[in-house]
């Protein structure tokens, strides 16, 4: 279970590592994926891209190799740091029982119109290309409100981590971008006062404590209190907002300057300003709240009295959580107060001005939120409100701080999670390496090997040191004779012989790597001096939340070809992503990320006829931009721009196409691509074989049913056409006919070749003798002896590589699912070597043994020319890769779940803290705070006195396996009654043993 804990531990350890570039393991190439055929009914990369890639001798001369203003690529080191940071924050959200949702990047323009006041000019609008008027989401809050209203949801605890887009003035050195992440947690519903609000503050406290960003303070206030202060100080209601904006400056300028502005610019009397000053300079805790409740004036103001009563209740709950030491009730906190209906809060990082000053000063806002109860009513046709409270973590600010600390420390981050490198000390041991690494992969060990037949041992060990790989498993001639593997600890250089059958357990037993602590203890001197505005913007965004509910009528829908992901769908999606990413990481891949939009010229001319499917952004002055069509062209641009010649990378992200959607079949306008690529100059077929092994592992792990991976080679098919007497000029058109053999019988394909394509019947018959063949090594051997093919240079070369590929696949033990199929022809004119496609199979009926294809779920191959399109000198980088048809897989799994009526858990909550009698809220809050602090995923109902039956029913409905019940008798006995929801068995557990008991029970398979 991922607990935030120390960031290094929680995030899987960021370890010292050398640069990936030029690494001997990836000596000389780059990865991108050949995706020239449909996966899930969609072409992954248009054929025109590959065609152009093969005919771009001039390379990318004149092309601007850059990302759009205010955006950036995330290379492996940044992407690894970002992913681990996000994983740590998400782990906290899950610990508090939140379910994930996702909404489209694209929203109808009218959904966003009128929500942001002056900020509306910062919205990215898409070009009107006919049909719906669209814009890119500005934040996650308005889409969430639209989602609640559209689905008539009145009770939900959700989190959402995703990118948002603003045409703001970027300040990238200070963590301000036009494309950036928001990280939101919200609780919606009618609950007893201040319980969910207190939990939001507990979440902020947990995240900032465990990320070890330095000392921090969470300021809290309430709109009602400040409005009451203004009223008793004699301020006209018409001036509340303008005076509020002046008070808001107290964290930047002195009270004297604030007072001068109130009097000189806002027309306030000096006496009224002085009365305000007596209040807004106050900050403290429960003692201050008690004093203000006795204040002769405030105690007579209804709003202030109500707000102070809730603030007192909030602090009582925070005291039970044990976090009031970091909380300050601060009457100067005014940002967004005119847009909230109750409590607001803001977390700031602190630093000492110098050694002689004890007072800490704020150096930056890193989280903010509060209660807003009016936003959903803006979308609901009847203006019905849904009370909401939430928090947003300033993830980009935190990311910038961590980046600067890492840079200042001089340390390098590990960009892979590889546990062991499989190495050989002598030549001619490639087969031994392939067998061993296949065993490790199949056992779930994250392992790498060199893609050279006979690498030097010194280079292999140096690679481990450069990349931070903790172990090397060395197989030499003596080790093979003795049935052992020499396991080397890279840090200590100690070696020990391990029996082959015990190697997996020994690797699992060893530490994952060297601890990485750099930058996590407080390092205030590394913080930028500027105060981040992102949280303030989030608060100010809600300017239209109050007072407008129900006045506007909206079309409550997502744009055509897009969809929201509900918690149930997100749970399925997360399982699939986790399985795929685990496989990619097991094979030593690094993650990268590229912006969702590219310069229009980057995409221009890459997709031929499919260019009409590209979403162009409206020309709002400045750069001309388009949404990415796939992940491959941005990857090629990334490689050329950064002069990278070798990398093993994966990238999972959304792409956009104005295609005709068929959503029931998994075809959308906004959809995920899931790519793995290896780039570099390597010995033939080793990386190609690994790509096929990855496809085999993923489809086996996902248990989608029987499958077959078809393989072919462009050179073999071209050679076959040549020996059959097909003119060069007809290769491509005949290829497209052969491509139809998985959809129609040979007789119809032959008729098309002869009748429509003008091929002679004799030539068609000769082609038919070949393209209906499929098999394995035996077929390859037969074709190598074929009198005609054996004389064709291209075919002979392709068959030689295919034989080598099957020899490696045999060592991997996966040839039972591989078919060398000469009819596989899709995209062959754009590939330079091997291609492959994975299809799911099914039995037509019980009496038919032959399996038939029911859909393509993965595809890829070798293409070596795409990067040269972007390189100024046209330098090529050999590439091979695979793309998983993730949307097709989602659709299959969603349909299966629907058909089975299986109940999908949408949270990971391990235990519900419940009470058996009334007036035990205090005990529930104490207990749940202990569980959260111990890393247990726990929930509590937000009612003071919920019925026990309702609490138990909630567990059964949501799949929570355990209930921790505190009653009067349990409190006397110092125990907690732990109930197994499935069996209904109950046992008393000592309070001090509860955490271990919950861990033990929930860790069982």
Notes on the structure:
This is histidine--tRNA ligase. Its EC number is 6.1.1.21. It is an enzyme of class 6 (ligase). It holds the Pfam family tRNA-synt_His. One of its GO terms (molecular function) is RNA binding. There is one protein chain. The protein is of the alpha+beta class and about 1000 residues long. It folds into four domains: about 30-65 and about 590-900, Bira Bifunctional Protein, Domain 2 (BirA Bifunctional Protein, domain 2, 2-Layer Sandwich), CATH 3.30.930; about 75-410 and about 530-545, Bira Bifunctional Protein, Domain 2 (BirA Bifunctional Protein, domain 2, 2-Layer Sandwich), CATH 3.30.930.10; about 420-510, Rossmann fold (3-Layer(aba) Sandwich), CATH 3.40.50.800; about 910-1000, Anticodon-binding domain (Rossmann fold, 3-Layer(aba) Sandwich), CATH 3.40.50.800. Helix content is about 35%, strand content about 20%. The chain has 34 helices and 32 strands. A nine-stranded mixed sheet has the order 1-4-5-11-10-9-6-8-7, with helices on both faces. Helix 20 (about 565-585) packs across helix 30, helix 23 (about 685-700) packs across helix 29 and helix 24 (about 715-725) runs antiparallel to helix 29 (about 795-810). The longest helix has 20 residues, at about 75-95. The two termini are about 15 Å apart. The model is unreliable at about 1-55, about 350-360, about 515-550 and about 845-850 (pLDDT under 50).
Tell me the distance between the termini.
14 Å
Count of folded domains? 4
The parts where pLDDT drops under 50 for at least 5 residues are 1-57, 352-358, 514-552, 843-849
DSSP summary: helix tally? 34
β-strand percent reads: 15-25%
* Backbone CA Rg: 31 Å
Identify the CATH class of the largest domain. Answer: Alpha Beta
CATH topology of the largest domain, anyone? BirA Bifunctional Protein, domain 2
Sum up the overall morphology in one term: globular
């Amino acid at each position: 279970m991922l607990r935030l804990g120390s960031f290094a531990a929680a995030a899987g350890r960021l370890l010292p590592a050398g640069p990936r570039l030029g690494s001997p393991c990836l000596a000389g190439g780059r990865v991108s994926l050949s995706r020239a055929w449909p996966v899930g009914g969609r072409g992954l990369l248009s054929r025109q891209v590959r065609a152009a890639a093969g005919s771009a001798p001039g390379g990318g001369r004149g092309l601007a190799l850059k990302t759009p203003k205010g955006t950036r690529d995330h290379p492996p080191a940044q992407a690894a740091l970002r992913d681990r940071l996000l994983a740590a924050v998400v782990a906290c959200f899950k610990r508090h029982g939140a379910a994930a949702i996702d909404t489209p990047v694209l929203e109808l323009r009218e959904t966003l119109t009128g929500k942001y006041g002056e900020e509306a000019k910062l919205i990215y609008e898409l070009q009107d290309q006919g049909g719906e008027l669209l814009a890119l989401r500005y934040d996650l809050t308005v889409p969430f409100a639209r989602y609640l209203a559209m689905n008539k949801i009145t009770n939900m605890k959700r989190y959402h981590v995703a990118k948002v887009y603003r045409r703001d003035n970027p300040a990238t050195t200070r963590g301000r971008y036009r494309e950036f992440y928001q990280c939101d947690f919200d609780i919606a519903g009618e609950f007893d006062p201040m319980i969910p609000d207190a939990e939001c503050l507990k979440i902020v406290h947990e995240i900032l404590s465990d990320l070890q960003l330095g000392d921090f303070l969470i300021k809290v206030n309430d709109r009602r209190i400040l409005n009451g202060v203004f009223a008793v100080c004699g301020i006209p209601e018409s001036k509340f907002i303008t005076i509020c904006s002046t008070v808001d400056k107290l964290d930047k300028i002195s009270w004297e300057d604030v007072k001068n502005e109130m009097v000189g610019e806002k027309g306030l009397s000096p006496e009224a300003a002085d009365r305000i000053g007596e209040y807004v300079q106050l900050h403290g805790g429960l003692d201050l709240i008690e004093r203000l409740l006795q204040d002769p004036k405030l105690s007579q103001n209804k709003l202030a009295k109500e707000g102070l009563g809730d603030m007192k209740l909030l602090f009582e709950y925070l005291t039970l959580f044990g976090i009031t030491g970091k909380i300050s009730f601060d009457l100067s906190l005014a940002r967004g107060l005119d847009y909230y209906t109750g409590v607001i809060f803001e977390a700031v990082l602190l630093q000492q001005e110098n050694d002689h000053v004890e007072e800490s000063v704020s150096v930056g806002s890193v989280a903010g939120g509060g209660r807003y109860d009016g936003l959903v009513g803006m979308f609901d046709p009847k203006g019905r409100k849904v009370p909401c409270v939430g928090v947003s973590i300033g993830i980009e600010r935190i990311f910038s701080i961590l980046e600067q600390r890492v840079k200042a420390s001089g340390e390098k981050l590990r960009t892979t999670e590889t546990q062991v490198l499989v190495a050989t000390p002598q030549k001619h041991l490639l087969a031994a390496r392939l067998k061993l690494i296949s065993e490790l992969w199949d056992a779930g060990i994250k392992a790498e090997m060199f893609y050279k037949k006979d690498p030097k041992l010194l280079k292999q060990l140096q690679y481990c040191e450069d990349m931070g790989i903790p172990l090397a498993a060395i197989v030499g001639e003596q080790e093979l004779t003795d049935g052992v593997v020499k396991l080397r600890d890279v840090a200590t250089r100690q070696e020990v012989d391990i029996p082959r059958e015990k190697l997996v357990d020994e690797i699992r037993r060893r530490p994952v790597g060297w601890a990485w602590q750099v930058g996590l203890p407080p390092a205030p001197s590394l913080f930028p001096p500027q105060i981040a505005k992102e949280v303030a913007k989030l608060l100010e965004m809600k300017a239209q939340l109050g007072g407008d509910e129900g006045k506007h009528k909206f079309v409550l829908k997502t744009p055509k070809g897009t969809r929201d992901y509900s918690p149930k769908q997100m749970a399925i999606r997360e399982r699939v992503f986790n399985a795929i990413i685990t496989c990619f990481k097991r094979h030593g891949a690094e993650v990268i990320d590229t912006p969702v939009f590219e310069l229009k010229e980057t995409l221009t001319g890459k997709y031929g006829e499919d260019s009409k499917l590209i979403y162009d952004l409206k020309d709002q002055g400045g750069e001309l931009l388009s949404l990415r069509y796939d992940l491959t062209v941005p990857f090629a641009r990334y490689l050329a721009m950064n002069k990278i010649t070798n990398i093993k990378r994966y990238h999972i992200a959304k792409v956009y196409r104005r295609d005709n959607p068929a959503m029931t079949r998994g075809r959308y306008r906004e959809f995920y691509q899931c790519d793995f690529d290896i780039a570099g100059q390597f010995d033939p077929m080793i990386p190609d074989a690994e790509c096929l092994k990855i496809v085999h592992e993923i489809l086996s792990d996902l248990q989608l049913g029987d499958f077959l991976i078809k393989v072919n080679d462009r050179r073999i098919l071209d050679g076959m056409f040549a020996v059959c007497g097909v003119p060069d000029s007809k290769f491509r058109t005949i290829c497209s006919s052969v491509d139809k053999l998985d959809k129609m019988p040979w007789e119809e394909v032959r008729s098309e070749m002869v009748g429509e394509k003008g091929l002679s019947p004799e030539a068609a018959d000769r082609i038919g003798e070949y393209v209906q063949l499929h098999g394995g090594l035996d077929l390859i051997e037969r074709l190598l002896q074929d009198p005609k093919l054996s004389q064709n240079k291209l075919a002979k070369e392709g068959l030689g590589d295919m034989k080598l590929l099957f020899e490696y696949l045999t060592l991997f033990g996966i040839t039972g699912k591989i078919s060398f199929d000469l009819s596989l022809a899709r995209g062959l004119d754009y590939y330079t070597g091997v291609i492959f496609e994975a299809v799911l199979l099914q039995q037509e009926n019980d009496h038919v043994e032959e399996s038939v294809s029911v859909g393509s779920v993965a595809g890829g191959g070798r293409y070596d020319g795409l990067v040269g399109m972007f390189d100024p000198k046209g330098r090529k980088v050999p590439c091979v890769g695979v793309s998983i048809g993730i949307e097709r897989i989602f659709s299959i799994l969603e349909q299966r779940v629907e058909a089975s009526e299986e109940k999908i858990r949408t949270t990971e909550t391990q235990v519900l803290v419940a009470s058996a009698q009334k007036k035990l809220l205090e005990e529930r809050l104490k207990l749940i705070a202990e569980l959260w602090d111990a890393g247990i995923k726990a929930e509590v109902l937000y009612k003071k006195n919920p019925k026990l039956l309702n609490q138990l029913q909630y567990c059964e409905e949501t799949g929570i396996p355990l209930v921790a019940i505190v009653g009067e008798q349990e409190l006397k006995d110092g125990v907690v009654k732990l109930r197994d929801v499935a069996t209904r068995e109950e046992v008393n557990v000592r309070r001090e043993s509860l955490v271990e008991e919950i861990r033990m029970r929930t860790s069982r398979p």
